[in-house]
Amino acid sequence: MNIDDELTELPQVNSKGEYCFRLDFGGYDRDSNLATVGLDGKTCITAIGCNGDFSNFNLLGKEVETAIDQIVTAFGIDTEIVLLGHSRGGLAARAYLQNSDSQYKEYVKSLITTGTPHQGSPLGRFYQYMDENCTPKTTYRQDNSVCEDSWEVIELLAGERVYFGYPFGNDEMDLLVPSIDFLSPESSEIKKLNDNVLALENVIIAQLSYRGTKFGILAENIGPLNLDYDLYKYQQLFGGDHPHPSTLRYIEKGQTRESFIGDGIVPAYSQQLSELLIPFARNVDLSFSSNAYNVIHTEQTEQVSDLNSMFESVRLQISWEQ
Q1: Residue 280 placed within a domain
Q2: What is the CATH number of the domain that holds 281?
Q3: Backbone angles phi, psi at 167, to 5 degrees
Q4: What is the pLDDT averaged over residues 184-210?
């Protein structure tokens, strides 16, 4: 589903009478009045949008609202909805549910988040470092110093790096898009969402988190030797490009790599919405944490057994029939 196309055809219903929909974000990414410009002036140039990477959390929440509107219109007033958000999708769902002006919230019975950076990710600080020290690219790309290292990392993870004349790297992530900046622990977007966390009410809340991967392991099978890509392997032979250690110290902001254990991008503590609720004498309704080794952030939607177990627990909580 997306906000540009009406829901005209329903997916196949499963044996329990449930329909599943996936929301493709990005409906506002090319709106010149709403979209945010990324690092070094990057904008969304594709007609179909850019996965919401140029939209703030409030706009992503609007896209959730539009999708729910379409679902309720199709199924009627007896509709019951469970929102499952991976990564930033969980923040989009929160932005929708925490907005007092949002419509159709009464149809949402539960929110499940997995790998969601509720308190942001230290990786988001990389964007701010580059913005403060290494832009424009035309000036710093070949400075034979820290910025050159960092621009090579950006190219590597975007699948655009040329290494000794050969293409190198995979299309893993784009570190130039503003969504990276929004996910910094210090970003105004994260702070605004979390200052209003008590507005998250009247839904069963479930969290699925992972705590078996060192921070900085962003991808698998990079380069000719199919090595895991680890931000901390500076000058690793055949391991691709890596940030200078001074850049990593900026990202850590006085903390240690070990304190960020989680899924490679999002520390375990940040994946747990309970960390924000407990100080207010509240907690989530259901929680599951996996210590499985090296389940990286981008692989979490493939953890079918974990997702199914969490969903089945939610079904019991909201009294859906077996």
Answers
A1: yes
A2: 3.40.50
A3: -60, 140
A4: 97
d(CA 122, CA 180) in angstroms, rounded, equals 10
Coil/strand/helix, residue 221:
strand
Does 297 fall in a domain?
yes
The pair of structure tokens assigned to 269 is: 């503590």
Name the one residue in this structure whose structure tokens are 């769902």.
93
DSSP-based three-state secondary structure for 70 = helix
Give the predicted TM-score (pTM) of the model.
Answer: 0.94
CB of 133 closer than 8 Å to CB of 178: no
Q: Give the domain range for residue 230.
A: 39-317
Phi and psi at 110, nearest 5°, equal -155, 155
Helix or strand run (H / E) with residue 290: strand 286-290
Indicate whether 3 belongs to any domain: no
Residue pLDDT, tens place only, 34-53: 999 999 999 998 877 899 99
Nearest by Cα to 276 from 200, 209, 215, 213:
200
CB atoms within 10 A of CB 293: 7
Residue 118, pLDDT score: 98
Phi and psi at residue 228, in whole multiples of 5°?
A: -65, 140
